[in-house]
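Cross-posted from the bioinformatics board.
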Amino acid sequence: MQYSSAMVGLRERKKQRTRRALVDAALRLFADKGYEETTLAEIAAAADVSTRTFFSYFASKEDVLFYDAEERMERLLALVASRGPHESPADLLVRLIDEIVYRSGEEEDLTLEETRLRMRLIMSVPPLQARALFLLFDTQLRLAEALCEAYPGRLGPLDAAAAVGALTGAVKLAAMAAISRGASLQEISDTARRAAALAASGLRSLG
Amino acid sequence: MQYSSAMVGLRERKKQRTRRALVDAALRLFADKGYEETTLAEIAAAADVSTRTFFSYFASKEDVLFYDAEERMERLLALVASRGPHESPADLLVRLIDEIVYRSGEEEDLTLEETRLRMRLIMSVPPLQARALFLLFDTQLRLAEALCEAYPGRLGPLDAAAAVGALTGAVKLAAMAAISRGASLQEISDTARRAAALAASGLRSLG
DNA sequence: CCATGTTTTTCATCCATTGAAAGTTTGCAT
DNA sequence: ATGCAAACTTTCAATGGATGAAAAACATGG
């Protein structure tokens, strides 16, 4: 009937507001006092909900920093599925990396400052790092799979795995280094892209 | 004075025995009731120590399954450092993978059954998987670094990262698949080696 | 056997996470 | 409007991992 933005009821809007309040509160508190030092009770209080309610929005304390992971992965997979007809695997992967790197700078709902903060947090808190790697691994698996499907007969599972591993490996390490030396998003993005190009050149042999 | 094996006092021997008892108990309980379902209290009880004591041997519940991670990494790094004078980076990495894969079958202190069990546990419990990936990442970083040093002037940081990423990426995915379909250690090892060879052939271009 | 340094146990506490029951709010149909 | 049903939130209680501190048990060297 109505345009979808107005169609959602109060319920939905409230939920969005609460989710947002929780993310914001968490990010701010983490920045102020550190991740470990911030309790869920504090986050919940800052967002004006009960502690228990936090868990109906996020499955864990870590999750509040990864709430958009699913969405991001879908975007990447879609990109692979819609490859250009003449695009080589290596080029496609580079475009993919570009997408990842670019997009990290233009979050829908986070400011640049928040994005950087989140990155720094994830990089510096081991359990968060572990979680990020877990998500990345999952993404790699799915990408490799998608890549096989996108190039049927041309790219075996192992080739795909190697290609994805090489590119993400290079980018991961390069970006990591850039982030931890406190580089700007622009620099990080540049470094990552150079790494991708470099790794890709080694992959051209895959066709 | 005496040969080192007899030199260690009762204290040291007891500590080894307790550590071992904890690992064994944990492994057995995890196998019987599952990881999440097993409490530290149960593990400690099975090893005849207090719960608190568990934490003077391992930093966390997860750690009891990764107690030898440090040692393994050192072995790999040593291997890179002692590369043959005419060995190419790709060949060296393949030898490395071989080492990893082989050795997983011949643990110093775990039986084959225990090794398989541990693998299955790590693969099937998300937090353990995350932890394993974290450790792997650390290893990758250090390997890339070591690789650069082993081939000064010949391999830049990004090349090294790409090479390590490609090989470990391929092996990781292949081994993962093999493990989760319940393959034997021999099969896993074979799969991993084929993956490594495949990825390496793509890397020869690095020299 | 004693003095000493270690390790283990006890005890107390914090916090993340989860289940269940009770209380509110929203959406919808009459 | 009114009121019912579904969806959410709060409250309450409990579990289990992790950590600090002080007391108790133990090993070592003299």
